[in-house]
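Customer ticket, subject: "Can you confirm the structure for LLM class flavin-dependent oxidoreductase?"

Message body: Hello, I'm evaluating your service for our small team and ran a test protein. I'd like someone to confirm that this is what the system normally returns, since I don't have a reference to compare against.
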Amino acid sequence: MDVGLGVLLDAARLPGARLTDLAVRAEQRGLDLVVVGGVQGGLDPLTVAAWVAGATSRILVGVADAGVPPAPDTGDPEQPFPFVVDKSLDGLGLLSGDRLLRGPGAWSVAVDSTIDAVKAAAGAGVPVVVAVRTVHDVDRVVELRVVDHARRPASVRARRMPGIDYEGVPDVLAAGVVEPGDSAYRSVASTYMRGGAPGLVLRATTVEEVAAAITFARRHTDLPLGVRSGGHGFSGRSTNHGGLVVDVGGMDGVEVIDPDRRLVRVGPGASWKRVATALRPYGWAIGSGDAGGVGVGGLATAGGIGFLSRKQGLTIDRVRAVELVLADGSPIRASDDENPDLFWALRGAGANFGVATAFEIEAEPIGDVGWASLALVVDDVAEALEHYGRVASEAPRDTTLFMMIGPPRGGRSVMQLYGVVDNADPDTIISRLTPFARIGPIVQQSVTVSAYADVMDMTDTGPGGHQGVGEPVARSTLFREFTPEVARLAADAVASGGVGILSVRQMGGAIADVPEGATAFSHRDAGFAVAVLGSNARRVDAAWDPVRGLGIGSYLSFETDQSPERLGDAFPPPVLDRLRELKRRYDPGFLFRDNFPIDPRPADARLEETAR
Ligand SMILES: Cc1cc2nc3c(=O)[nH]c(=O)nc-3n(C[C@H](O)[C@H](O)[C@H](O)COP(=O)(O)OP(=O)(O)OC[C@H]3O[C@@H](n4cnc5c(N)ncnc54)[C@H](O)[C@@H]3O)c2cc1C
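Agent reply: Thanks for trying us out. I re-ran your input and got the following:
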């Protein structure tokens, strides 16, 4: 259905909670729009549309004629005036992130839910909606798309890419697949950090669908395969050119499964903002990184260095079980008691072993926190880095301030510090921040007592999906401390012009409480994870190589150089050997290779491959 397919909800007939449930279901099942109609009595469609827009994040929201009769009766105080309605619609358009469609004419309504009725309505060249009353009805609309998938129009088929068996997509997946000629393609082709043009995106929302997608991918091993959850990968190529992408972004549930143990079951497609918001009423939090838009799937398989790590450990340290689908298509569960070897590997090198479909994570109680953002002007970057390193190392575990700095302008740089004091007392917050504030003159500051969920910002993910362009260049090195030499060489790198931004994530504290070797994630003695970003790999390397030499390892999530040396930086030899052995067991055909692939073949075969 190239024009788009969606559902029509009758606000006059359906109870309020059902309306949002149906809209959320339509979004999860990959439909394109939800139209709120029902002008005669019942709930006001415009209010319902606002409610629906708030409960969803991607799907377009149409509001039928917004309750405005063609010729309003100015004597009737019950009737809305057009300018009031227009203003409300404009507001809703902005708040929904430009997802609002205004009828009539922006969609056409199928007379019933048969494929023939849908095809007839599609003749108008605008998205088609089908009236629904139950979740089952929504699923039937999805099935219409399945039926239609096999008969994609010639204009869509003309944009198919070589080497992909488009006609062989399993039926169970057909509702969610997006081809280059489909209207939804633009919203799924790229990720946050990179531009892409995959040949087929397989959106899976159940374990069965993930298994079918993997089985389909196994028939295409000569093509790149990306696995996508939140689409924020640097090291992970969750998009590609001409290959396949398995997208589990729709598996985004967050459910408390054991309140006594604060155990939460989280889907890989949930954003960390969504997790934080869902746990807010419980007074709990799961630490992640610094950006709410990042997905659970990529972060909870790699590490997770965030504002709460110094108190709670890495995100992977809170994970109690992972469910995934292996390269052979079989579902498996890994925890301390079930497949413990695999569980070990999934916490640091998870992307190599399968597609995670659910995580069970133990949350921690949290109250309001101090949320700080300070901009300081620094003349001597080396001195400021060393100063920051010293203050950060001495800070108590409740205080975590990340740092970013760019190249000097006019001999001065702006150092941005942002982070959390896990304490709601203003005096404590101020005393914790004061040593950081002494690094240089403050030109901007904001310090608030906030809910942790409000700290998790996700302004980076637009409603039209990710629109990244090009290929990021990032290098990542772990340091124990900012020695004068590290600070000087890092400052030189920033000044070189080869590096656009240097960012530092404070580590230490509870991260190092977990014994080295307990997870595949290594180098727990690091005090700082430093990443540099640029656009030209040669220039970034020229600037960064001298600094890297002083590091103790790498956090791969911020590294885009996929050479074997970098794999070695992240995983010391015994860890890498064990990972390789497990890769041989769980992915002998080397299917998962979009994110620092660990080659399962013996060393001599790998060498031959490199030589070719
Ligand atoms: C703006 C920004 C800020 C960040 N801040 C932090 C931070 O503070 N701390 C930190 O630790 N990291 C941070 N990161 C890095 C981030 O954790 C990783 O890039 C992570 O991989 C993104 O996960 P995702 O699901 O959003 O990405 P995706 O692009 O969807 O996935 C990235 C890779 O992860 C793997 N993957 C994804 N889903 C699954 C799955 N279901 N099963 C198995 N493997 C999967 C795949 O190899 C994939 O290529 C940040 C990234 C960005 C872009």
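A couple of notes from the result: The mean pLDDT is 91. The chain has 22 helices and 24 strands. Feel free to reply with more questions.
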